[in-house]
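Hi F.,

I've been meaning to write this up properly since the lab meeting, where we talked about keeping a consistent format for the predictions we share between groups. The idea is simple: the sequence comes first, exactly as it goes in, then the C-alpha cells exactly as they come out, then a line or two of notes. No screenshots and no reformatting. I'm using this chain as the first example so we have something concrete to point to.
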Amino acid sequence: HSRQEIYRENMASIVSIRGSKGDGMSLGTGVVMSEDGYIITNSHVIEGCGAVDVVLQDERVFQALLVGQDAQSDLAVLKINAEEALPFAEFGNSDALSVGDPVYAIGTPLDIEMGGTFTDGIVSSVNREIQLTSRTSMPLIQTNAALNNGNSGGALINKYGQVVGITSAKLSGNAFGSATVEGMGFAIPINTAKDIVDELIQNGYVSGRPSIGITGQNVESADGKVSGVQVYSIDSRAKAASEGLQVGDVITAVDGTPTPDMDKVNELKQDKKAGDKLTLSVYRCLLYTSD
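Output, unedited:
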C-alpha cells in the first residue's frame, strides 16, 4: 500500500469530535468501527461534556449518543444515526507490530479546520508500560508520528492500511507531565481496545471497574458559591438511578471531598472497588411554577 492509498482507504472512516463544556469546548478524533454508526474515541475527549457532535469528512454534523466510557483505559464509544451505511475502519493485529514498522496517523490536531490531517512515522516501541492513573498502567504502542492535542481518539494505521491503535495525546502528557512531547506519541493497541469497546457496547461500562453510571459537565454558579459536576444523564442500570440521583443535580463532593470538576470525581472513584459505596453531596435547584 502506498501512503496515498492508505490515506484514501481510511480518510472517510475517521471523524472529528466536538464536545461542549460549561467552560468551552473539547476537540478530538474518532474512528468509525461499524456501518451503523458506532465510533471509538478517547474517554478524556468527551469527559465533562454536556453534548457531543461528530463531524464526518464531508462536513455533515451529527449529535452523538454516549454508549459507554472507561476512564481507566481512556476509551469511549459513541453512536450516531446517519441513516445510511457509514464507511468503517478495518482493524489489524496490533500484536504483530515490530519496532521500526512504518505507521500512519489520521486525526484533527489543534483545530476543527485541521480534520483529516495525515502524519507518518515508525513504531518506536511496542508494549511500553505507561502509567494512566495513580493505580493503573497499560502497555501502549509508542510512535514518532506527530500527534497533537485533538489527535486524541484517532487512528494509528499499519502498512496494510489497517487500524492498529487508538492515538491519545493525553497519554503522552500523563507519561511526561506536559501536553505533548516532541516525537513521542502513544496509542492504545487495537487488540486491547477491541475487548474494552465490545464490553462498553454490551454493558455501558467495563465490569469490575468502579463506575457511578453518569455523564456530567463541569459547572459553576455566577457567584462562585456552587461548583461541581452537573449530571447530564444517568444509566438506568446504575445504582445511582435507584438511589435517587437526578439529571440536573450538581455533585459538589464525593465522600466529603469537594469535586469542582469531573476529573476530581473520577480520581476519587478510582480509589474504590466495584460494589463499594460512595456518598455524593448534591446541590439541587428546585423550580416552582405558579398555578
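Notes:
The chain has six helices and 18 strands.
The two ends are 70 Å apart (CA to CA).

If this format works for you, I'll send the rest the same way.

G.
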